[in-house]
């Protein structure tokens, strides 16, 4: 019996196959256990927030690096399956092919939720990590975003994605038909930015004749392109488009707009002279002619006034030096300048205000407003008075203001007119409420007292007595009116 047992032991020890034992220290599974125990002993170190400890994997790469994260994520799902298959298929072979399980202290242990156990994992846990929640980041792009860079979007889908701010390449639309469908879809989407983007693409990829022909029947897109060309200053392409559309007046206006880019006065005058012959409408032609005449007039006035200012021959230029040149100024500014420096000149001179009024057919209201502001700034009150004084056919004088005397009072007050000048024009305000309001606001006491007297309002007059200075001439005047027995007061 003992011999049989000895033969069996000799058989097992002499076989080329080796039995699986847990006591074999050279067995790889034992090494796996030892590595598990070693890692578990390190968990105390891991749990401590020791920032100075540099953590590395078994391959030597720093834990948390990008390359290590990718390797760990890719190998976590394949290592256990490959190891399990090799064991099942090589059950009779050597256990040297048993897969090595990596340490639990690795990238997967950082990103996977594991329960901390007091002992190492079992063999089944080492082979498969079922029930383990994976928190590893997915570094790949979502599949839904792959189509952003593909070429299978239809024109309608492309327009929708552009409306949502997605990046879409329009280069795949190569045929004319596809480009026109894309434009129609953009117009149907009612998004101006998308329409403009598609038009820029068509402008770059189509010949001008084809683009103009197709836009002629698409008015919405045409308007967008015209506005875009005006904003970007592509004048040549804009003029070609307008000529193709036979819009002669717009062509003329676009050429006239180039005047803004000319700084030299003489070149601007010559350009304006050439613009007179362009196919403008009758009204616009008149404006172009006036512009040319005004520039010519400004050149003459500027030349003469510069000479007077430098020579010191004119007193007004010495007292009030010019702050800017009159060249290229609007008509109203030129009229103000003329009323300020050349108000008394005869009508025959180019710088005379009345000459400017007659030449450019300036309305009376505009002329009076401008002249009043200029003369009031110079505190020339006699000129202001003469501006509103008229005579009838019987020779009687009368003050008349086409702008209303309430506006005259406001302009005079802004230029610090004295009280006696303000009172004279406040009296001429026809509306009683407005007159009282202006007189009270600007402290024209005589006007207020006379108005309450005419209204026979004893209560208001008595109340206003408290607002004037005690012992002043205004208070004495109020007392005299209140004591007048001939006035029939209403209250």
Summarize the structure.
The chain is mostly helical and 491 residues long.
How would you describe what is shown here?
The protein is mostly helical and 491 residues long. The chain has a two-stranded antiparallel sheet with strand order 1-2. The chain has a two-stranded antiparallel ribbon with strand order 3-4. Helix 11 runs antiparallel to helix 12, helix 23 runs antiparallel to helix 24 and helix 24 runs antiparallel to helix 25. The longest helix is centred in the middle third of the chain and has 30 residues. A hairpin with a 5-residue loop joins strand 3 and strand 4. It is built from 25 helices and four strands.
Which strand order does the major sheet show? 1-2
Shape: elongated
Proportion of strand residues: under 5%
The count of strands amounts to: 4
Major β-sheet, in short? 2 strands, antiparallel
End-to-end C-alpha gap: 152 Å
Number of helices: 25
The ordered H/E elements are: HHHHEHEHHHHHHHHHHHHHHEEHHHHHH
Work out the radius of gyration.
49 Å
- Structural class by secondary-structure content: mainly alpha
Seen as an oligomer or otherwise, the chain set is single chain
Percentage of residues in helical conformation? 55-70%
Q: Report mean pLDDT, rounded to a whole number.
A: 79
Poorly predicted spans: 45-53, 80-84, 87-124, 130-136
């Amino acid at each position: 019996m003992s011999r049989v047992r000895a033969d069996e032991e000799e058989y097992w020890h002499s076989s080329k196959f080796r039995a699986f034992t847990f006591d074999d220290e050279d067995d790889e599974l034992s090494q796996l256990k030892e590595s598990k125990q070693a890692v578990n002993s390190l968990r105390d170190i891991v749990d401590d927030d020791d920032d100075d400890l540099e953590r590395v994997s078994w391959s030597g790469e720093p834990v948390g690096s990008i390359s290590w994260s990718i390797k760990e994520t890719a190998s976590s799902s394949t290592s256990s399956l490959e190891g399990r298959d090799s064991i099942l298929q090589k059950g009779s072979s050597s256990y040297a092919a048993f897969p090595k399980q990596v340490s639990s202290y690795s990238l997967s242990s950082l990103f996977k939720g594991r329960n901390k156990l007091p002992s190492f994992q079992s063999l089944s846990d080492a082979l498969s990590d079922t029930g383990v929640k994976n928190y590893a980041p997915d570094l790949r792009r979502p599949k839904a975003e792959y189509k952003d860079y593909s070429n299978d979007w239809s024109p309608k889908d492309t327009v929708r994605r552009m409306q949502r701010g997605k990046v879409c390449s329009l280069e795949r639309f190569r045929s004319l038909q596809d480009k026109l469908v894309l434009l129609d879809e953009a117009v149907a989407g009612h998004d101006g930015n998308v329409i403009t983007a598609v038009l820029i693409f068509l402008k770059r990829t189509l010949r001008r004749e084809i683009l103009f022909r197709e836009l002629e029947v698409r008015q919405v897109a045409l308007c967008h392109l015209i506005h875009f060309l005006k904003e970007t200053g592509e004048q040549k392409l804009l003029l070609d488009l307008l000529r193709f559309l036979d819009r002669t007046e717009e062509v003329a206006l676009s050429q006239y707009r180039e005047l803004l880019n000319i700084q030299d006065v003489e070149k601007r005058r010559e350009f304006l002279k050439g613009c007179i012959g362009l196919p403008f409408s009758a009204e616009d032609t008149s404006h172009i002619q006036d512009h040319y005449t005004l520039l010519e007039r400004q050149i003459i006035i500027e030349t003469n006034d510069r000479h007077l200012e430098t020579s010191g021959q004119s007193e007004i230029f010495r007292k009030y030096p010019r702050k800017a040149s009159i060249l290229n100024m609007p008509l109203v500014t030129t009229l103000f300048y003329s009323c300020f420096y050349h108000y008394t000149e005869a009508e025959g001179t180019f710088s005379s205000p009345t000459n400017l009024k007659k030449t450019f057919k300036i309305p009376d209201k505009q002329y009076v407003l401008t002249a009043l502001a200029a003369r009031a700034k110079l505190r020339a009150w006699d000129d202001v008075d003469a501006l509103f004084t008229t005579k009838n056919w019987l020779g009687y004088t009368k003050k008349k203001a086409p702008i209303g005397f309430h506006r005259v009072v406001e302009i005079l007050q802004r230029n610090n007119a004295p009280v006696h000048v303000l009172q004279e024009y406040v009296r001429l305000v026809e509306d009683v409420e407005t007159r009282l309001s202006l007189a009270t606001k600007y402290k024209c006491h005589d006007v207020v007292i006379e108005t309450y007297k005419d209204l026979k309002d004893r209560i208001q007059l008595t109340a206003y007595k408290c607002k004037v200075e005690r012992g002043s001439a205004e208070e004495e005047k109020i007392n005299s009116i209140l004591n007048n027995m001939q006035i029939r007061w209403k209250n």
